[in-house]
Amino acid sequence: MTLINLTPHDINIVIVEGGDKITVPPSGILARVSSNQKEVFKINNIPVYQTVFGEVENLPEPQNDTIYIVSTMVLSALEKAGIDRTDVVAPNTINAIRENGQVVAITSFQVL
What we know:
The chain is built from one helix and ten strands; from the N terminus they run E-E-E-E-E-E-H-E-E-E-E. The protein is mostly beta strands. A four-stranded mixed sheet has the order 1-6-7-10, covered by helices on one side. Strands 2-3 form a two-stranded antiparallel sheet. The radius of gyration is 17 Å and the shape is globular. The protein starts with a strand and ends with a strand.
């Protein structure tokens, strides 16, 4: 299975069974969710904005034996739009390996 990373960061994966480590570098294609903001009110003259998320951009069409790694935000936007792509996953950071509070590797992916 080919893993294609559609995020801007290396995805470090530690396979718990065996301890192997895989790094999936960014592919150069960045899947994103479009967004717009509008000011809805102010608190002590500080603007408060509402963000409205739109469509997923730059997600390639499915390919045989290929899994796309995207952000959880992109995965969530696909779910909200009713798009069921079994070839799209996001890093599961709930059980990630952390150093000084920062994710350094994941041990699994997630789907919604």
